[in-house]
Predict the structure of Large ribosomal subunit protein mL38.
Amino acid sequence: MSRPQQVARPIVRSLRQAAGGTATCPSRPIALRTFSSTPSRKDETTTTTTSTPAEPSADAQKLAADAALLGPKKPAPYPSMIKQGTEDQLSQLLSPQLGSRRRRAALATTGDIPFEQLPYQCFQEARKVLGQDREEKVAKIVAETAKIKRLEAADASTFRGGEAYKQKRLESLREHVERLKILADINDPLVKRRFEDGQGDMNKPVYRYLAQRKWYSMQRKIILQRVEQFHIVPDLLPKFEPIMDVKMTFRGYKTPPGAILNSRITETAPTLRMQVFDKGERLFSIVVLDADVPDAETDSFKKRLHFLATNIPWNPAKDSLPLSRLGSEAAAASSPELGALAVPWLPAFAQKGSPYHRLTVFVLQHSNNAPLDSAKLQELYDGQGRDGFSLKSFRDKFALTPVGFTMFRSVWDENTADVMARHGIPGADVEFRHQRVMSLKPPRPARGWEAKRQKPKYRHLWKYTKRIKGMKF
């Protein structure tokens, strides 16, 4: 494009907007005023009546006071005005929860037109191609489902491998059908839109696949980094690979994995947001333990159990579990399916002088969905059983599999003593200090400056040295 064309393009665009020449993006009419000798001011107003205004009512005064506290109101949105702009300009048009800036700008310019009826030729042609591809995938799903039914009705003795071969073949065909279901809907714009808006049905395989792919892209990498960075393996488990997404919030605030939290925030149990990516119901147990409890007698560290809940039913459609509701009478009456509480929540605390404590949250899946005896767990681990808790022994004893993980850290702060006093935890007055290790080398004889000035003549210089003959410091 030549330089004159680049210069003339903005002028032509402004003239078209003023004349209303663009039909796809109508603009507001340009305000016209008559000629005058003085410029107009933005703050001047036009008086339409000369009558005395009435006294505002009490409701009007209250609304005015609320408006003064909340600040100036945002201007009324004009959906057909802005196609491009900054983040602040687009945030005035639509909610930030609707996705990226490009999508918000597109929704602002298309009005109330349904998403699948957007008047873009390329978009509609692409939807036709995707529709044909989906029909082919659906036909394959029908054919594979019929094959599975025939194989289920067949006698296992007709196969060379017998029943084992039959079950293996059935499992392979079912996995192939699940992949076809994902491929049939993976490119559908409506499916992607529902997933981005958080409205996807996790009982459907395509939404579980999208959620798993999103988690594997970043969040799982962060969890694996924390596991390696804070030596969770091998301090707590010899080997661990997370396969489910676990997030944690304290009093509504999101907690990044490994964050150092104030003891006042961690005084109450958190809420876990857990997401599994395979279909079916399963039972979980949740363990919260402190991996860095100082032991002054052995000059080492031990572990302490802070929370234990078991027999928690879970499926892909569920996402939130408030740990503070487990074990309460109201929760047992209203939502008995939450699970059983074995060991209640013990606030996270770290005594003065000790290094940061790693508070780890593990989600363990039951083998064959077999429930555990919560009364037996309470007898084993509540009270004195909290100290010296071993996650590896707990896993092996009850045939559990660790599948989810998150963590936070705790240090001594200005609220730790009050939290320990409220919950009857002793040791708030204990301060740990590093033990001084004396050198095993023999004392070195004085040399140089010190050796020359050890006579009484240089008594005024003795304060600058530690090696005076016959004197101990």
In short: The radius of gyration is 35 Å.
